[in-house]
Inverse folding.
């Protein structure tokens, strides 16, 4: 493995093998496997699980890490090409990324979408530029439209919960006070499709996932023997579902227009997952969410605190799968 940027870069069998290796590392720890290795972590955006789990994983494998949050104890980094740097940013990533890469054996970067131009975000222009500047293994800690570490942990979580490979998986839009990026829904729908599941994207009008994301996931589903559909009919979507994956994202109809997005979501407060949502699901159907989650806005207390919720297991599995990724990149 040279980089870890997207599950789509790997075959289904390679992902299955990586998950098996993650289990083997959990069963038989290797506390000296990465002794002397250094992981650099650059967070242009906030983090809790990604930051903590990568540091913990590196330490458990015997390595070390450093964390850079541009503008917080370090120079603010400029990301725009051909920028006239007469504002807050004192250094450009064209210098900053190569320098940081020279200090470590692998570099992880989190850089969210700008949320202004859908075509530009779908093109992953910033992460592509970072990749061209980094001569060490690069890990995607969440980019404009991808979050492969979360997707890998979600796959493992379903395996651990013994969710059948071809079970019905519903990715549902849920409410949030503001527009959020497409990275997790894009990675999630591709992951479930790649696993071979019957995938349904449930969303209100105006929040359909972009064609580029759906086409890629549909191809992955066909290759794995699964399927992919989308609907705004909640009862139909959840009928027979084994997993409800709740996630917030911004309107694609009004992408980059915060005011129009806000007007559209103002009437969608009922898109908060509550126990009645599961009336037609299979017995014991699970609730998944990447976290952080806004209680009683996106998901109600009754579900998050009940036996359906697998969110804490998902979070723990970030550590398990990322240790396997680090081992494959650096050992």
């Amino acid at each position: 493995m040279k980089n870890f940027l997207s599950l789509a870069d790997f075959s289904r069998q390679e992902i299955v093998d990586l998950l098996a290796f993650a289990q083997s590392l959990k069963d038989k720890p290797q506390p000296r496997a990465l002794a002397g290795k250094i992981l650099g972590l650059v967070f242009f955006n906030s983090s809790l699980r990604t930051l903590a789990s990568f540091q913990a994983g590196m330490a458990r494998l015997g390595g070390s890490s450093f964390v850079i949050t541009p503008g917080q104890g370090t120079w603010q980094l400029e990301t725009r090409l051909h920028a006239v740097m007469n504002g807050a940013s004192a250094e450009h990533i064209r210098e900053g990324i190569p320098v940081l890469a020279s200090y470590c054996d692998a570099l992880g970067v989190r850089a969210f979408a700008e949320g202004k131009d859908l075509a530009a975000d779908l093109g992953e222009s910033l992460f592509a530029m970072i990749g061209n500047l980094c001569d060490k293994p690069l890990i995607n800690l969440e980019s404009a439209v991808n979050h492969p570490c979360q997707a890998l942990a979600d796959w493992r979580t379903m395996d651990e919960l013994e969710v059948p490979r071809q079970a019905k998986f519903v990715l549902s839009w849920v409410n949030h006070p503001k527009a959020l990026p497409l990275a997790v829904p894009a990675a999630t729908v591709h992951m479930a499709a790649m696993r071979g599941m019957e995938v349904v994207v449930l969303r209100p009008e105006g929040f359909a996932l972009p064609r580029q994301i759906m086409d890629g996931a549909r191809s992955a589903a066909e290759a794995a023997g699964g399927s992919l559909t989308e609907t705004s009919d909640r009862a139909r979507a959840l009928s027979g579902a084994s997993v409800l994956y709740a996630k917030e994202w911004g309107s694609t109809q009004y992408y980059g227009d915060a005011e129009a997005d806000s007007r559209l979501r103002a009437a969608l407060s009922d898109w908060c997952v509550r126990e009645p949502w599961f009336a037609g699901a299979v017995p014991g159907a699970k609730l998944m969410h990447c976290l952080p989650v806004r209680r009683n806005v996106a998901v109600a207390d009754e579900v998050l605190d009940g036996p359906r919720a697998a969110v804490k297991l998902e979070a723990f599995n970030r550590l398990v799968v990322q240790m396997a990724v680090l081992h494959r990149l650096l050992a």
